[in-house]
Amino acid sequence: MIGCFHSVGLPQRGILEAIDRVAAAGYAAIELNAETLPWAPAHVTPDTPADERRAVVEACRRHGLAIPAVGAHVGMVADDGAGRAAAIAFVDGCTDLAVDVGAPVVHILSGPSAPGTPHGEAWRWFADAVARTTEHAARRGVTLAVEAIAGHLFHGVEDYHRLARDLPGVAFKVNFDPSHLEVQGEDPSRVVNELADRIVHVHLKDGRGRYPDFSFPPLGQGTIDFAGLVEGLARAGYAGALSVEYEAQVYGFRESEEAILRHGIAILDELRTGGAP
């Protein structure tokens, strides 16, 4: 499995600086963040100009870094058609960017449904968005994956099964982030056991507590059995990225960039050699 760092963990750095730092820390890959968060601007978006895309490719080539995924997270179940269309256009634009930088996977989320929107209606909107963005991705030679997020319309293991039933023949895949399942009281190993054939990207982010009273602490300070999950992934034949996604600062943890990067690579080394964080 490939040791990767999600650029969202370096929100104060531009993407070229982030690439330099991730490479210097010993990672083999960098995941590109296209989501704008209250604490982290996007490193790339569909509006990223061609010369900057080329610069990203060249910097990664110079350092020997792969780009396994682009995180195209935007709410996709707005209660107005224009908002939903804009979200699909954003994801498709991220897919086009992924082609330019050589990333094989783009992953998405549903976002929370608007207050008062019937669950069934919001679900139909999201299923339609998944079908449409997956079709565009397939045309471009990119894989579209869905991430379950605590507090969102699409949030749990059963949602993956329901979406597969509702979209027969639509080849959406799974971006597996165990932290969101852990803080909802779900067993993350269910994804490995039940959906291994759909997993194309994996986030390493710890979790503890129960939604909505929860946190995503530094790796090893939560309650996730990463060693067991990675062992299960290996048995299932997963050979893709394990991407360290650091958001612990949002929950009051204060670590330097150097400590974050160093700790992440140490955890990756332990997991890939059969140890436990």
UniProtKB/TrEMBL annotation:
The protein's matches in InterPro entries, at most eight in alphabetical order, are given as: IolE/XylAMocC-like, Xyl_isomerase-like_sf, Xyl_isomerase-like_TIM-brl
Q: Where does the Xylose isomerase-like TIM barrel domain lie?
A: 19-270
Molecular function, one GO term: isomerase activity
Report the protein name in the record: Sugar phosphate isomerase/epimerase
Q: What is the lineage of its organism?
A: Bacteria, Pseudomonadati, Pseudomonadota, Alphaproteobacteria, Hyphomicrobiales
Transmembrane stretches, start-end: none
Name the UniProt key words of this record, in alphabetical order. Isomerase
* Short name of any one Pfam family annotated for the protein: AP_endonuc_2
Q: Does the keyword Protein biosynthesis apply?
A: no
The question of whether Isomerase is a record keyword is answered with yes
- The lineage's top-level taxon is Bacteria
